[in-house]
Amino acid sequence: MADSAMTLSEHLARQQPPSLPADTPTHKNVATVVERFARVAVGIAQELAHAALRGRLGVVGGTNVTGDQVKKMDVWGHEVVVAALRESRVCAAVISEEAPEPVEMKDGAGAVVVCTDPVDGSSNLDVNGSVGTIFGIRAADGKTPAASAALGPGTQQPGAGYVMYGPATTLVYTVGTGTHGFTLDRASGEFRLTHPDIRIPRRGKVYGINEGSGHTWHPGQRAFVEHLKTQDKASGRPYSLRYSGAMVADVHRTLLDGGLFMYPADWSDPKKPKAKLRLLYEVAPMGMIVEQAGGRASTGLERVLDLVATEYHQRASVILGSPDDVAMADEFYRR
Ligand code: AFP
Q1: Distance between CA atoms of 259 and 322, rounded to whole angstroms?
Q2: Could you tell me which of 284, 276, 274 has the C-alpha nearest to residue 115?
Q3: Ligand 1 atom showing the smallest separation from residue 68 Cα
Q4: 11 CB neighbour count, 10 Å cutoff
Q5: DSSP alpha helices (H): ranges in the chain?
Q6: Ligand 1: distance of its center to the CA of 324 in Å?
Q7: pTM (2 d.p.)
Q8: Residues in contact with 54: Cβ distance below 8 Å, sequence separation at least 6, in sequence order
Q9: Distance from the alpha carbon of residue 277 to the mean position of ligand 1, in angstroms
Q10: Is the pLDDT at 51 greater than 80, yes or no?
Q11: Ligand 1 site residues, Cβ closer than 6 angstroms
Q12: How far apart are CA 14 and CA 12, in angstroms?
């Protein structure tokens, strides 16, 4: 890609988000958050590349609020992301996977609340697999605690994004004007536009899911995956299975190639289905990114952006990807 490709800052400056309710933050505040994540991602990518050499791999001991084993990089990632957002002075609070309670930021101008998983997929770290950073942005409402403004449906997000740390470091963001992808030029430290206005294919050929948990799924989910695996040349089946164990990597592939990423709930007790992924900093941001690329994001029973968060670390199931594929999944849930 030529050095002349647009930088992230130039691109953000050209976006004119659709008109939002009066209490939503200005585009400038949202753009500041995206730029902060870009800046911090350069440091995270560097640290990931050297983590084994610096003794940063492995666990610190204990689990986080959502029950995952905490890795050293999770803790470090949380600290650098929170520090970068504090310094931005546009954040009123940060809700992070690695902190049981939101981090309130009384010294900032406080236009936005950021929900983030600083190092998502961290169980991949010890095997040199891809990981990511996910963020969703919400408007602050001036109330105390500031973080409570993040509760509510994902349709209220003025922006969302993720960074994928793979062979290249890629940043994908949306502020409601489509979904755009950038690649880090390591020499200059700039993210440059490499994937403008990403449009997800209407249908794909690949599905990603942890099939080992198949026995716990909703009957509609089980029937749907069986359908995807059943040979039928005319409708392009069977689909292939790809699953990395890092949501960012699986969503990124789905966004570019089409198909499905699914993390369904455990329906072993149909009265209390239990999801794994987190609504505020995994499911809702990815839902917005995929919808802005022309895709769909559903639980099988409803649109994920309509799910109302009532708790900071609330969980939700998700089926996201190509619009025709997700519509087909919904149909199986309805049967
Ligand atoms: P970790 O950050 O604890 O590795 O969890 C990653 C994750 O939240 C998400 O990125 C993956 O899609 C999902 O969990 C993988 O979960 P399974 O290991 O249960 O398939």
Answers
A1: 5
A2: 284
A3: 3
A4: 19
A5: 8-14, 27-50, 72-88, 219-229, 247-257, 284-292, 323-334
A6: 25
A7: 0.95
A8: 47
A9: 8
A10: yes
A11: 68, 120-123, 210, 245-247, 263, 276-277
A12: 5
**Rounded CA separation 44/52 (Å):** 13
Q: How far from the centroid of its chain's Cα atoms is residue 144's Cα?
A: 26
- Show the CA angle centred on residue 74, arms to residues 69 and 76, nearest 5°: 140
Q: What is the pLDDT of residue 90?
A: 94
Per DSSP bridges, beta strands 206-208 and 190-195 are unpaired
d(CA 320, CA 283): 9
Q: Which has the minimum average pLDDT: 47-61, 135-149, 223-237?
A: 47-61
Helices (H) and strands (E) in the chain, counts: 7, 17
- Residue 317 binned pLDDT confidence (cut-offs 50, 70, 90): very high
Residue with the bigger pLDDT between 68 and 122: it is 122
d(CA 195, CA 208): 22
pLDDT at 108: 55
Using CA atoms, how far apart are residues 61 and 50, in angstroms rounded to an integer? 21
